[in-house]
Fold this protein.
Amino acid sequence: MDPSLKEWTVFIDRCLEQRVRADRFEAASNQLHIKSPISGRKLSEALLRPRSSSANTVDPLIVVYLERLLALKRFDASDLLSQAFKWSRDYPPKTGDERVGPKDDQSRWRNPPELEEIIFNRLHKAFHSGERPQNPHEARETLTIVSRWMSAVATAHTSDSMIQEMTGLQQPQQQSINLREALGMLVVGLIENLRVIEILNNGRLKDVRKSFARSLSVFIPFLAQTSIPIANRLEISQKEHGLDDNTSNELNGGTGGNELDVAAIQLDAVMDLPIINTRAGLYIFINSLLVARPLTDDITIINYLHSRYKIDAQNLATDLITASFDVLSNAMYRSESSQTMFCLKSFLVNKIPTLLAQLQGSIYPMTSEFCITQALSHVDPNAFPAFSQGFDMTGGSNVLSDVRQDFLNACALHNLIPVNSIERLLGETPMQGPPEVKYVKNELLKQCKENFEKVNMFTDEIENLDGNGGAIVGAVTEFISHLCETQMTMYLKTICNLLSKKPQALDVMLQFTSPASILRPLCQFLDEWRYDGDQGEYQLVYDEFGAILLLILAFVHRYDLTYHDLGINHDSFISQLLERGHLSLPADELTDDQGKHLGGWLRGLFDANMAINDELMSSCRPQEFYLLVPTLFSQIVFACSADVLSLDAVKGGLEYLLETFLLPSLVGAITWMTSHALEQTHQDLDILMQIFHKLIRPASMSGDAQTMHTTILSILSRRLEKCLHTIRHRDPSRTDIDPLLEAIKDNLNYERLGYASISELEQWTSTPGNTLRSSLRNTIHSLVMWSSNGAIQLTPPGYTHRQLFTTLKLLGAHKTLRAIIEEAKVQAEAGNGSVALDVATALICAPSTENSPLQVHWVTSSIAQPSPPRTRLNLREMLKVELDAAVGFVLQDPLTAETIVRLHRRVEAQLAIAGTDTLPGTQLGLGVSVGVGVGVEAHSMPGIDLNIVDDAAAAAAVAGVGDMDQQALERGLERHLSLGNAASGLDLGPGGDVGDVGDLDLGGDMGMGMDGMGMGDDDDAWGLDFDNM
């Protein structure tokens, strides 16, 4: 035996014998791996080799160790499957070796089938989620071993069935059924994995594809005997990807290959339909920008518009304004919340004029007043009546009656129209005019530094709908960063308290800058927070720390931000708080310092002879306290349950936590309590409910504490509501729940997320026969009909981008895309092909906060937004998979194949331009000067763009389209402009100039080459960063 294999085998055997816990096993295995490196194949052999001749059950520790070693990347899926197959009862015996050997012959020992079933299920999840494969080698080897296993299972289990029939048993054993179903699901995960499909479609790996197709053709009929749903799913995927066994065709002259060649030629020859920029296209796009966390980056929007309109700036601006009004009227008709309405109004009034100002000052000719006039003639007059008509007989008013006036005032502020034209455009005398002063970011920042009181005024004005929002946001964002650099904690506390109580102000801020620009300086400031040697009152330290922390938590919970979104490291304080700030630690896992701190806080809260004093707070840093809060509350609840503490003593001690210097700790405390309350393994519920009442409905609080408490309840409202409703469902007789629900009623709907509510799901699926897929198709149909009759029908159809987001979440990219393709095909048959293609393209290209096909990097913000990790395929990537599969069914279903081809071309052409991080003028080397309102520094671009990973042919096609667009643009410029004088000062906001975009160092840290990614064979590398998927 190989020395390293022997050493690892002994090590694992001893760990299993001594029942070593997972964390200790991981630490010991890391040390051994440094001392004695071993290949993944040999390590998996040491772990999986049978340890007795008659093992009928699985040692659970083997599964635990397997998970840890997979997570540590000590071996991959192919290593694991290879060794599991070697010790499987289905492993085919060598020729002439069928005789029964002695029991002590370890080469004949076999693992129980349950272990294989567990491995199959674990790897199915990994391939289905996109966690694996991590390199082409793993994908190729996994396909090879799974091909062998499918054939072996079909052969071995068929033989077993024949023997059972001969002995009078008609049904296969349940364990055999479970095993083949688990293998079937693993194969499903493989076939539905984009990277595996790329390997199967690799022309240099025909043998791998042929072997897999042959085994699949044998396995599917065998699986159908006991598991029809899985077999049907495999059969659909087999047909989609052309994985039929073509052996018979090859024996008859190779007609199968010729058919595929003919099909490929037929797809290449598909004619494109005329390109139409529909009203629904931008309607969908703007909905997607604002449905959750704002994704309203200037460069993203302008490049997206350019990808659709090229140099037609007049229609671009007109349609942009119209779509923004459409989105707002749709929200009113859908009775969206007041916070949603405000967010959409702010985008229209504060953001759109700044975008128009950039376009007006760009290389493209545009008359702003004409565009605004045209757009206002297209909006729904019932949704946006004249101000004098916006009142009804009961004294109420239309919530949008002042929107046109506010928008026109903002346009006048940005010099898009003269002030005296507002009355003509409104059709009545305006109730008020534009602001007297157009704010400039640098001037505001200077005022803030000279006089802090100005910050209070500007912060209050963030929520004004007057067109000055962008400049204020830019100044406040940079001022926060300045305060962090200069460690002005008292001022930071004040500005954080001002912002955390204004959720609508947070929405406006994220419409103009990235979350990282605001929050990363604050997170780093908390990381570096240290006590000074001459520190005075420590309660003030906790007070300032808590105010900053609460603003970060308000952003995080409102927009569901991760530490990636904040632009911070995983080991930072905020990252650790988000990961485990709601988890209590068992006593045996507390460090000595944590044990001392916990005892100190318990004595300070509940010992009559003690108090929370400077000695306690000086010994326990705020970072340590907040991570200890869930453990503190678990000890309080358990002590009260065991009658160590009386309930009155607990309520008295908790008064400290209702003071501003400790109040933010309620976020972690109540989060832990809601989780513990739903557990049914204890008798603590009555105590928890008493504590809930004390913390949620305090008898009295100071004004500052009351404001902070309201923010905390907003942060926790959704979690509290779910918890309380669940408790009431379990025990309807409880009378202490309704007062709590009433107390948080006004704090609900705080989050700005893309998830649909239960009522929306019921609305989409309540009609008999309606499903999420059919509902999505109905929505697409209504958007196509509206776009076809936009000149007549001004009222937009009901739409929320939550529908697409939810369908993707619940059904996955494959089924969602099939619904889009099917409806586009139906509309093409009805003569609406071009319109349907534009609507479908808008849906597929729409940016998202998760797995977005269009990355929003905010490169003009003071801190660019990092690319979030990928978790699953998006619609663009799934469309590429569908395109690869279209060759297999173009002859049987040519219209569907043609729809897929046209849609793929349109999507790639649009994203080729929209997905860049420079403005169109800079792409052409025209030297456009950019003045960015939020402040620009040299940025390093986020790593590798995972969206640009198509095969060579698709990349070449997209490049061709891009070249055509560039040539057309240059010809248009020659007609309208002198290229030598094209540098026209493209103003990106209300701030000062930062020079030529071409001078910006956007290259930065681009050193994410293939060498450091573990990509395996260079010639097979896809260029994907799987570590961040």
Q: What stands out?
A: The CA atoms of residues 549 and 664 lie 7 Å apart. The longest strand covers residues 930-932. The radius of gyration is 32 Å. The mean pLDDT is 83.
